[in-house]
Write a structure and sequence with these properties.
The chain is built from 7 helices and 3 strands; from the N terminus they run E-H-H-E-E-H-H-H-H-H. Helix 1 runs antiparallel to helix 2 and helix 2 (38-55) runs parallel beside helix 7. By secondary structure, it is mainly α. The protein has one domain (10-155). Strands 1-2-3 form a 3-stranded antiparallel sheet, with no helix packed on it. A hairpin with a 6-residue loop joins strand 2 and strand 3. It has helices at 17-32, 38-55, 83-88, 92-106, 110-116, 120-125, 136-155, and strands at 10-14, 58-64, 71-76. The longest helix is centred in the C-terminal third of the chain and has 20 residues, at 136-155. The radius of gyration is 18 Å and the shape is globular.
Length: 161
């Protein structure tokens, strides 16, 4: 039997496919609900937006666990829920690309639209405690845009491997 020899940790940066797939689950859940379920639609869409943004800037490290032959997988991504804060922590190239493509597609400012909805996930989980108004159409637009953007980037091979 061949002995495995650990040489060094492996670090992968870029789109994290597992976070993307989780975002898709929340996205598809929201899209599959009847319009009567406003709060669950908003919460699921908002969480998908958060995860789509976070999957763009993830560092995954595969390292050896202590003195064993076992490996550990560690993912470091942006923490917090506000869309604008997550956007600000993205790599400059992603911020520029997202903003430019969004502007071309919708003739609107991406960061400004994110700011309008920045606390949707937190606020709408407890919507019964507040008087809330949201532009649900804008949330759908941003979620659709991010999903398409990430899928196109992944087709070009820009993901963690």
């Amino acid at each position: 039997m061949e002995k495995f020899e650990w040489k060094e940790d492996k670090v992968y940066e870029g789109i994290e496919p597992l976070i993307y797939l989780t975002a898709n689950k929340f996205y598809m859940t929201a899209k599959g609900l009847d319009n009567y379920f406003t709060e669950p639609i908003i919460v699921n869409l908002a969480f998908s937006v958060e995860l789509y943004l976070k999957c763009l800037n993830t560092k995954t490290t595969l390292s050896k666990k202590a003195n064993t032959n076992l490996a550990t997988l560690t993912r470091k991504t942006i923490h917090g829920h506000p869309f604008d804060k997550i956007f600000e922590k993205l790599k400059p190239i992603d911020k520029v690309n997202l903003s430019a493509k969004y502007l071309r597609k919708y003739d609107r400012d991406f960061k400004n639209d994110l700011c309008k909805l920045k606390n949707a996930f937190v606020d709408w989980r407890y919507s019964f405690e507040k008087d809330l108004v949201i532009c649900e159409g804008l949330l759908h637009q941003i979620a659709d845009f991010l999903k398409d953007y990430i899928e196109n980037e992944m087709k070009q091979g820009k993901y963690s491997r």
